[in-house]
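so ive been stuck on this for like two days lol. basically i have the seq below and the ligand is 3-phosphoglyceric acid, smiles is in there too. i just want the complex predicted, nothing fancy, no docking runs or whatever. if the output looks off dont worry ill sanity check it later, just need somthing to start from for the group meeting slides
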Amino acid sequence: MTHTLILLRHGQSEWNEKNLFTGWYDVTLTEKGRNEATRGGALLREAGLLPDVLHTSLLKRAIITANLALEEADRSWIPVNRSWRLNERHYGALQGKDKTQIRDEFGEEQFMVWRRSYDTPPPALADDSEFSQIGDPRYADLGDDAPRTECLKDVLERMLPYWEENIKADLAAGKTVLVTAHGNSLRALVKHLDGISDDDIAGLNIPTGIPLVYELDEDFRPTGPGKYLDPDAAAEAITAVANQGKH
Ligand SMILES: O=C(O)[C@H](O)COP(=O)(O)O
């Protein structure tokens, strides 16, 4: 028996449009992002891939994307689980900063280390920054463990327990699972599923709003590569993500 897992990055957010590092800052979708989310739902419906359960982050760009996609697929009624463990990578002191300005100020190499290295986080964000999440009630349970910055390795380590305990349990129960999350939390999950090395993961980018479907075997290993439901749009959008910050 195989399991069906659908990964969906949120549609374009207001800060994606403005080219700002976002991380845990809670911005909403643009009109384009809302349309991407609805189109994602149409792709699911057309493929006959109807989720039985949804897992999202605590950030509204993922939550709204899931709502729009599920409405389009006529699955608004499915049970929902939300966790900070699916949040975007906390982007530290880069949150709220313009990607092109950071690249110009610190150079391409440092920019890419902060953006795509596996284990080097950006500098920590000060608790009194206007872009900080310290004191946000949705993270109250984390107490002083709430991150002030994260690298992809940190994201993988905090995401994996949720994968193991929550998402796998739904897959094991025979459910088609939709995970609606973020560029870097999904990069972490794909790294784990596909066994991508710490070096090679730098080259992986996830497009907004296009469902990525995995069939998994009884050990929750992919039976083949994950498939985007609109491969041409995905290829174009992946290039756009890879080129962010370039003039
Ligand atoms: O948090 C962000 O800025 C984006 O959602 C992901 O950004 P990245 O592709 O630059 O890591």
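The first strand starts at residue 3 and ends at 9. Residues 21-23, 88, 91, 115, 182-184, 241, 244 surround 3-phosphoglyceric acid (CB under 6 Å).
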